[in-house]
Amino acid sequence: MDPAENTLAGATLEPWLLNRIADEGDLEPLARIGFAVPGEAARNLVRLGGGSTAPFWTERADILGRGIANTPDPDLALTALQRLDETTDLTGTFADSDNLMSFLRILGAGSFFGETMIRAPDLPGWLFDREEVRRNAVEAIADLDHTATEGGSGAGFLEDLNRLKRRELLRIGARAALGSSPVDEEWRALADLAEHLLQSVLFEGWPTDLAYPAVIAVGKLGGRELNFSSDIDLIFTLTPEPGRDPTATMHQTTLAVERFVESLTRYTSDGSLYRVDLRLRPGGDRAPLVRSRQWMVSYYAAQGAAWERQMLVKARSCAGDIESGTRLDPLPGTPDTLHLSNPRGPRSGRGGSSS
């Protein structure tokens, strides 16, 4: 049955919010609304109507019924709402009926939304009171400031970045759940967020006396095709600095890249940033982690297999020494021009600057 038809059946949530349940037969209206487990839904409604915010929800029993019936998963939406109500004052933000209807739709779109807001009770207000859910996600990520994290340190740094990631994923996903954003905005925002976090981690942990490598995104990140659970595929190249021992510099850079990747994958109390796949570099797992830019250009020009050249069509220089990575374009002897650039704008760093 179409959820929209359920809302016309006359079912109201008020009896359960007021704890006026006579017997199991009273659960049939909840099944009509769309609850897969009406008994559990009834218990959640009784809890929702038994707390300090009971008058607020009872007054909005019909709105709750319509909103929950029109979510992708009514059981998930109600469970998340009840848990949030235990720890968060939602009454100010969702006195507006349109906001409440939108909020319920988001909660029913996936467990990520409720779990994220339960862990960070300020996020419902951030989404709706500040109208962040209405803001284009690509534009919002472009406004994120590296200065708050550049050069940062301490045990909380990665936790802060993980919270930032979850907040922005919430915005991206909420807009998608509400039908407010086209798919290309979602993909672009997910890729831009990954690049921002990569650059932030690089800024934070890179040795001050060592030039940045070019961090080249390939695979889904390179093609701006990330989804919410994608890993990221990276390749690292380095332009040797004049006057420095290239062998020693490559060794130091490799150690620093290993620490960088470990920071990206390290599990914290707020999760880990990304799973990182480095196997698409020339030679795969057994090859050196970092190669010189000139070696990389020569390899793809003379030895690269067809699939490797095809992979590079979507490659982009996304962090670190972006200018150096961009200069891999075009590769000698290849029919296609590679676009190893970052259209989000210039970023500077030791050993190179974006153009």
Question: How are the elements arranged and paired?
Answer:
Blueprint: H1 3-6, H2 14-17, H3 28-33, H4 38-48, H5 54-59, H6 61-69, H7 74-87, H8 97-107, H9 111-119, H10 123-128, H11 137-142, H12 157-177, H13 183-205, E1 214-218, H14 219-222, E2 232-238, H15 246-265, E3 276-277, E4 290-292, H16 293-302, H17 306-312, E5 316-320, H18 322-326, E6 348-349, E7 352-353
Parallel strand pairs: 2-3, 2-4
Antiparallel strand pairs: 1-2, 1-5, 6-7
Helix pairs in contact: 4-7, 6-8, 7-8, 7-9, 12-13, 13-15
- Backbone shape: elongated
Q: Strand portion, in percent? A: 5-15%
Into which percent range does the helicity of residues fall?
Answer: 40-55%
- Structural class of the helices, strands and pairings? alpha/beta
User: Average pLDDT value?
Assistant: 84
Count of individual beta strands: 7
The helix/strand series, from N terminus to C terminus, equals HHHHHHHHHHHHHEHEHEEHHEHEE
Largest pleated sheet: 5 strands, mixed
Distance between the termini: 55 Å
- The parts where pLDDT drops under 50 for at least 5 residues are 1-10, 147-154, 330-355
Count every helix, treating DSSP H or I runs of 4 or more residues as helices: 18
Overall radius of gyration: 25 Å
